[in-house]
Structure formats: C-alpha cells, structure tokens
Amino acid sequence: MTPHTAQTDPSGSTIIETRDLVREFSVRKGLSRRVVRAVDGLSLRIGAGEAVGYIGANGAGKSTTIKMLTGILVPTSGEVRTCGLDPTTRRRDLARRIGVVFGQRSQLWWDLPLRETYPILAAIHGLSSERERERTAELVDALDLAAFLDTPVRQLSLGQRMRGELAAALLHSPGLVILDEPTIGLDVLSKAQLRQFLRAERERHGTTLLLTTHDMSDIEHLCDRVLLVDSGRLLYDGDLPSLARSMGARRVLVVDLELPHPDLTDLSDEDGTPLAGVDLVGSEADGLRQRLAFDTEKTSAARLLAAVTRRTDVRDLSIEEPDIEDVVRRVYASGLDT
Ligand SMILES: Nc1ncnc2c1ncn2[C@@H]1O[C@H](COP(=O)(O)OP(=O)(O)OP(=O)(O)O)[C@@H](O)[C@H]1O
C-alpha cells in the first residue's frame, strides 16, 4: 500500500515546510557506534490555520521532528522552514512567532507565581504594557487561572500548571503553536479545558496547531488532519476517521453491572435485530465489569447501551477511545509499505 497523501491547498500560505528532512544520531552500542535515523526523508507542508496531529509509536521520530522545527536540533540533511524562517539560524526571531508547550517539561519558573511570570515573559517578547494587560486578562479568563495566580508554580496541580504553561506559551499571540503531549497525565476535566481553550484560540485568532499525542481524543477534538510517522517516515497524511476506519479501530464500552452476569454476547435490538460489529473483549470479577468493543459505523454507543440494559442493570459506564498505539499497531499489521 502506498501512503495516503492529503491534498493541501497550494495557494494557502505555508507555515511549516520540510523537504527530505533527515536527522541521525550516533549511538554507542558496546564498543562500537551505530547510526540511528530518527527522521528519515520527511517532506511535509502545513498551511496557516490548520490543526494537525503528529502521531506515531514510541521512538517514531515525533520529538526529533519538533525539535528541528523549533530550532533545538540541527538537521543532518534536508530543508526545514518554520514561519518562513530557517529555525537553526533564526531561532530568536522564530521564538517571537511560535509558542511551544511540552507536556513533560515545564517552561515556567518553579518558585514564581504566574502573576509575576507573565510580565517577565511579556517583557521578553517586547509586548506593550497595554497589550500585556489585555492579553493576560484574556488568558486568565479563558483558562480560568484567577484562583491560583498567586501560588508558586511548584505548588500547582498538574492540571493548573498546564493551564499556566499554555498561557505562558501563548502570551505573545503566536501564529503557530506546537504542543508535545500537552494532555499527558491530565484528568478528564483538565483535558477538556485545554482542548476547549485551544479550539477557541484557533477560532478567534486563526492559530495554527501542531501537536503530538498518544490520546486519540485530543486529535478527535482538535485536529482536522493527521500525520502518522513510523521510523522517521511519513506513513499517512489525511483525516483521523479515515485512518481509524481503514485500520478497523473500535471504541470500547465498559459497563459495571449491579450483579455478576454471564458474558454479554449476541446482543440485539428490542425487535431482535443482532447488533453488528460488537465483540466482548473482556470480563472481570464474575462478569461484574464487561468490555464491549464496537464499530461506530455499524452500531452507535446508545444502541449498544440500550441492548445491555435490556439484559441487566448497569451501575456505571465509560467509553474508551481507540488509542493511537493501537491504530499504529494495526498500520504495521496491515503491512503498509513505505
Ligand atoms: N539525543 C539522542 N541520541 C540518540 N538517539 C536519539 C536521541 N534522540 C532521539 N533518539 C532516537 O531517535 C529515535 C526517535 O526518537 P524520538 O524521541 O524522536 O521519538 P518519538 O516519536 O518522539 O517517541 P516518544 O513517543 O517515545 O516520545 C529513537 O530511536 C530514539 O531512541
């Protein structure tokens, strides 16, 4: 199979472009050294205003790509332009135009409260005091920061800190925001807040988003395009539903029952029509918790739940999205050829 490639509008303005981008690392193995090609001939174009998910298994080359896009790493060969600039030679200029958020690394000063942090960042970016006041107020409101503005960063919860990080990265209203695993470790509510904020920011200011994530819901809620990499090469460029569908990825309904129950198999509608695309994929504690994978193209979550509740009483439920690792595994299993 050849990689699916999205047709992007050639007339739209380009915000990220790479051509045959390569990055190698020399790694010591015992007494000898060997070369690892973390990024291997990557060519892509991202237009202004797009929201793109950059996904792939662990070690696929995502972080290395992001580091080259932001000027942290120099490419071994090939070309890269971010906001029209060469990131390695124009790193300072680039910093004024982009915002970068690392889910696993804080960019805030640990001992300072956010109230003292933002004026420093505003000064670094050369914002006027009026602009600083306006933008800080906008971000404090949108990210609901008011309650902990005076707390030193080290005392914030992870969810609070990530909201503070986002405000810091977006204070100068960058046209491009690059996020590396922004929702990692966050609870459901904090994830929802972050996504809601990024969506609103994009709608209001036309901000371009590029994010890596292992959470498929981040992509579902935020991105209209997905780039899938494996061993540093682009395997897929298109939308998420097509990728997930082509890989047969399914959601899972997890039900906790009032009483132990035999396996929930052969489920059907009220009129006896069997539900298609549903499989029991787990049963624990004598059937008190059962997991049903379902294909949303064939059976909706509501129909499936109705079929379960006709059989037995449900105490609690949740729906697990297919995770990207699973989709990626399916890509490999299907023998997609690069
Ligand atoms: N500084 C480095 N020195 C040597 N090898 C490296 C270095 N950085 C990355 N690599 C290797 O390059 C490959 C790609 O790594 P990279 O961190 O870009 O992957 P990733 O897709 O971001 O993975 P993850 O999802 O686990 O963060 C891996 O084989 C990794 O071991």
From TrEMBL:
Domain ABC transporter: 16-256
ATP-binding is among the record's keywords: yes
Subcellular location: Cell membrane
Origin: domain of life: Bacteria
Keywords: Antibiotic resistance, ATP-binding, Nucleotide-binding, Transport
PROSITE patterns the record matches: ABC_TRANSPORTER_2
Signal peptide: none
Transmembrane parts of this sequence: none
Chief localisation class: membrane
InterPro entries the UniProt entry points to: AAA+_ATPase (IPR003593), ABC_transporter-like_ATP-bd (IPR003439), ABC_transporter_ATP-binding (IPR050763), P-loop_NTPase (IPR027417)
GO molecular function annotations of the record: ATP binding
UniProt topology in membrane: Peripheral membrane protein
Name under which the protein is recorded: Methionine ABC transporter ATP-binding protein
Native species: Mobilicoccus caccae
